[in-house]
Amino acid sequence: MDSLSLFGLLAVSAMLVFYALEDRNPLYVLWFALACIAASLYGFLQGAWPFGLVEMVWAYVAWRRWRRLSNRRA
Fold it and tell me: Is the model's pTM score more than 0.90?
């Protein structure tokens, strides 16, 4: 497995883990957004730009959800 494939595997695995933990704490939503950014970067580096774009949108949606949840707790 090359380093780019390993990076992609780790990014998508992190997305899965943080998505599963989102109900426990809003910080997991933020970590999910960061994992989406990593997966987006992987998609662009691999040449799969549609995947990169969709992951970028998911990152934005998760970031907005994290902001909403964080403001609710404050």
Answer: yes
Say whether pLDDT at 74 is over 70: no
Q: Give long-range contacts, CB 8 A cutoff, 24+ apart: 55-59.
A: 58/33, 59/33, 59/34
Q: For residue 23, how many other CB atoms are within 10 A of its CB?
A: 9
Are residues 66 and 33 in contact, defined by beta-carbon separation less than 8 angstroms? yes
The DSSP letter of residue 1 is -
Q: Could you tell me the two tokens for 6?
A: 């390993």
Query: CA 49, 36, 17 angle in degrees (round to 5)?
Result: 135
DSSP 48: -
- What CA–CA distances, in Å, run from 47 to 51, 61, 67? 9, 23, 31
